[in-house]
Inverse folding.
């Protein structure tokens, strides 16, 4: 009798084990799903795709990103295409947009200073507009965006800089080199180069050719070239 009961008990245990294993296998097959790829989607798209896959989405944090727009998924946990239980929460980190910075005030400073800031902060130097102005050459006269603007890295900054004041070249042809130098100096300019021509002219060292030509505008510090006759 005891032997019969023992065999009966063993049979029941085996049957239950088989049933549990079967139920467990069946249950696992029904409740396990692939985690969808949510990275690169905005949060609304991610929620829709997650619902279709039978899971949920939960935003755990946000981070600055220079590549993903605001509210787009940067990372997810569990990883995409891993098996998860149906109904599981997928934790995601979303983008809070690019890193922003406050633009310095360049107006009144030098172009070199502005350029250093632009390069150091991963900005882009846009069109460089030169304007005649009494300020020293290279002084920043205007900027766009204006000072104290909150801008994203990679943004373009346009500068207007001074090209100094301009002088109008006098007619120097026919003057002696000495007189030509005096007239140029009176305009705050100087002769940068003198070319001696093979042409013999009386008196010697008369200006034969000038560059820039008479009537042309020239910047302070600009290049002035005179061709003069040689000494006979």
């Amino acid at each position: 009798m005891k032997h019969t009961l023992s065999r009966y008990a063993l049979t029941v245990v085996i049957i239950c084990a088989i049933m549990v294993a079967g139920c467990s296998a069946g249950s696992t097959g029904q409740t396990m799903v692939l985690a969808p790829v949510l990275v690169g989607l905005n949060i609304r798209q991610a929620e829709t795709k997650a619902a279709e896959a039978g899971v949920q989405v939960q935003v755990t944090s946000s981070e600055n990103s220079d590549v993903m727009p605001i509210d787009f998924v940067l990372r997810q946990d569990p990883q995409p295409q891993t098996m998860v239980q149906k109904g599981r929460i997928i934790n995601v980190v979303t983008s809070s947009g690019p890193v922003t910075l406050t633009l310095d005030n360049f107006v009144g400073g030098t172009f070199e200073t502005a350029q250093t800031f632009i390069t150091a902060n991963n900005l882009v130097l846009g069109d460089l507009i030169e304007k005649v102005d009494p300020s020293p050459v290279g002084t920043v006269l205007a900027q766009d965006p204006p000072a104290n603007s909150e801008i994203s890295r990679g943004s373009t900054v346009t500068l207007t800089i001074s090209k100094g004041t301009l002088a109008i070249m006098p007619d120097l042809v026919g003057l002696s080199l000495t007189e030509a130098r005096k007239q140029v100096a009176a305009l705050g300019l100087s002769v940068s180069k003198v070319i001696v021509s093979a042409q013999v002219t009386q008196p010697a060292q008369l200006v034969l050719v000038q560059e820039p030509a008479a009537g042309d505008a020239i910047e302070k510090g600009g290049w002035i070239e005179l061709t003069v006759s040689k000494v006979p």
Summary: The mean pLDDT is 85. Residues 166-230 form a domain with the Trypsin Inhibitor V; Chain A fold (CATH 3.30.10.20).
